[in-house]
Amino acid sequence: MPIRSSVYAACAVVVAALVVGAAAPVAAAPLDPADLGGSAVSGTVAPVAAAPPEATRPGGRSGAVGAPGVDDPFFPLAGNGGIDVQDYDLRLSYNPATDRLEGTATLRIVATQDLRRFDLDLRKFTLGTVTVDGVPAAITRDGQELQITPKRTLRKGAAFTVVVPYAGVPEPVVDPDGSSEGFVPTKDGAVVVNEPQGSPGWYPANDTPRDKATYTIAMTVPRGLTAVGNGALVSQTAAGGRTTFTWRERFPMAPYLTTITLGKFVVTTGRAGGIPTYVAVDPSQARASDPVLRKLPEMVAFLQDLYGQYPFETVGAIVDDAPNVGYALETQTKPAFDRAPDDATLLHELSHQWYGDAVTLRQWPDIWLHEGFATWSEWIWAERHGGQTAQQRFDELAQEPADSYLWNPPPGDPGSPADLFSGSVYDRGAMTLQALRVKIGDPAFFTLMRRWYAEHKYGNVSTPEFVALAQQVSRQDLGAFFTAWLYTPGKPPFLADDGAAAASARLAASEGGGRRR
Ligand code: TRP
Ligand code: ZN
Questions:
Q1: Is 366 left (phi over 0), alpha (psi -120 to 50) or beta?
Q2: CA of 181 relative to ligand 1 center, distance in Å
Q3: DSSP per residue over 412-439, as a string?
Q4: What is the distance between the alpha carbons of residues 374 and 344, in angstroms, rounded to a whole number?
Q5: How far is the CA of 332 from the centre of ligand 2 (A)?
Q6: Which atom in ligand 1 lies closest to the alpha carbon of residue 330?
Q7: What are phi and psi of 320, to 5 degrees?
Q8: Which residues contact 416 (CB under 8 A, 6 or more apart)?
Q9: CA atoms within 13 A of residue 499's CA, in its CB half-sphere
Q10: I need a surface site. Which of 92, 150, 451, 456 has the fewest CB within 10 A?
Q11: How far apart are CA 248 and CA 270, in angstroms?
Q12: How many degrees, rounded to 5, is the angle at CA 183 between CA 182 and CA 189?
């Protein structure tokens, strides 16, 4: 009954043996080693079938090689087997005049299997001497795979530290849908957004949303520019005509949600409820964005009431002028905008902090768990603020003809990475939630939304898990419902062009009734 359960059966999460608080010999120690102090929020990685052990090298020790990917259907080489990154410490500098990025990445990692060799993901760049626990390691490179062979085989469960010095001109990563991401130059700096695969364009990462970690990102830029990262600003120091901004995100973060966007910004700090805010706006966007950004505290309060307590320690926004990017992204704690957002876009990206950033997909084809939820969040904001109700929006969309963008690909099965962010994932994904709301009623629906968040905060999820929780909360068999809404191509036959009230009635009839309203 769980949809496509076979796809997911292979990826039951095994909690890796976490070495909580293990001291690693780190030169540049993370600023905040007492991360939350609980294993409940430590990142874990779903296991990957171990590669067959390679023959013992002469004079070496036997051990497995970490797989080059974690079997994501859309990005098979993203992420790596055998490692669970606990913390990233990125010390970087960037000069917009030369477009040169240089720095050192220090990763604290736990081996989830014996490792003779393991990979990180990094595109291009010239490397300095890479070390594992202070000892130079052998390096080979194969596309985005940075293959690291430590002097000694790492044992399963061992904590170790990798240091990667690197430099070069970052190349934006171009996605299958043609969009640019990673470290993307702007007229006064760079906008840094990574969904789904931009991170290896500017730092060595275990680039899978399954491996969340804490981050320190320090960026040195010419005086007059501001570098804005995730989490809290730990320090801002000026020296020799340059300024270093050090940011710390002490909550688990997927690599694609990192940022260190830099440029000329007007910064405003304040509070949203009890949460410290940091909002950075490109001066050219200030006039258009100020009236929208003023609503940020109200939006955070609204989302907390609806879904549960805000998941992180800081909140804010980065509004840049980046027409070459062309989309906004829910970078953790500070969504990044390519231009002044409107109310709906700000609300959308803020709602991703709950659904997307705190509760994160395990595989990219489940993207509707982010985009459908954020789009539906826009609808309920409008409904509760004197605008169109979510049902009115649904009814409007239900009129879309069969050949509309809206119906394909089906949101639960986008089919190709080029369709990851297609309109159907957003709008038909949101319609799925609205149809579910009508089918199970508001009390069950809002309980479901809150429990989904509370039970998976800081973790990873799949669609079958959402279906199972919806069934548990509603005490209804929803298999046919979700198959129709999420996995069946084309306009659902129970939606004719005569509006959703009639459509809902038809759906109920086709399922034998029993629907309450
Ligand atoms: N996830 C972003 C959002 O909030 C959209 C996005 C990220 C995107 N990467 C993209 C859209 C690449 C198009 C292309 O909706
Ligand atoms: Zn979104």
A1: alpha
A2: 10
A3: T---SGGGTT-HHHHHHHHHHHHHHHHH
A4: 10
A5: 12
A6: 4
A7: -110, 180
A8: 74, 176, 409
A9: 4
A10: 451
A11: 18
A12: 150
| C-alpha span between 292 and 343 (Å, rounded) | 6
Pocket test residue of 375, 421, 425 for ligand 1, highest count of atoms within 8 A of CB: 421
Residue type (1 letter), 430: A
d(CA 171, CA 182): 8
Distance from Cα 478 to the centre of ligand 2, integer Å: 25
pLDDT 10s per residue in the chain (517 long)?
A: 333 333 333 333 222 323 233 333 333 333 333 333 333 333 334 344 443 444 333 333 456 999 999 999 999 999 999 999 999 999 999 999 999 999 999 999 999 999 999 999 999 999 999 999 999 999 999 999 999 999 999 999 999 999 999 999 999 999 999 999 999 999 999 999 999 999 999 999 999 999 999 999 999 999 999 999 999 999 999 999 999 999 999 999 999 999 999 999 999 999 999 999 999 999 999 999 999 999 999 999 999 999 999 999 999 999 999 999 999 999 999 999 999 999 999 999 999 999 999 999 999 999 999 999 999 999 999 999 999 999 999 999 999 999 999 999 999 999 999 999 999 999 999 999 999 999 999 999 999 999 999 999 999 999 999 999 999 999 999 999 999 999 999 999 999 655 555 656 666 655 543 333 3
Which is it for strands 100-111 and 159-168: parallel, antiparallel or unpaired?
Answer: antiparallel
- Rounded to whole angstroms, the Cα distance separating 174 from 480 reads 37
Gap between the terminal Cα atoms of the chain? 25
35 ligand 1 Cβ < 6 A: no
Beta carbons of 132 and 151 less than 8 angstroms apart = yes
CA of 426 to the centre of ligand 2 (A): 8
Q: Is the CB of residue 482 below 6 angstroms from any atom belonging to ligand 1? A: no
- Of 503, 435, 430, nearest to 474 by C-alpha is 435
CA distance 303 to 220: 35
Q: How many CB atoms lie within 10 A of CB 205?
A: 31
Structure tokens at 290: 């100020």
- Burial degree of 73 (CB within 10 A; 0-12, 13-18, 19+): middle
Give me 332's structure tokens. Answer: 């953790």
CA distance linking residue 128 with residue 324, whole number of Å = 31
User: How far apart are the C-alpha atoms of 304 and 39, rounded to whole Å?
Assistant: 24
Residue 87 main-chain phi, psi, to 5 deg: -155, 140
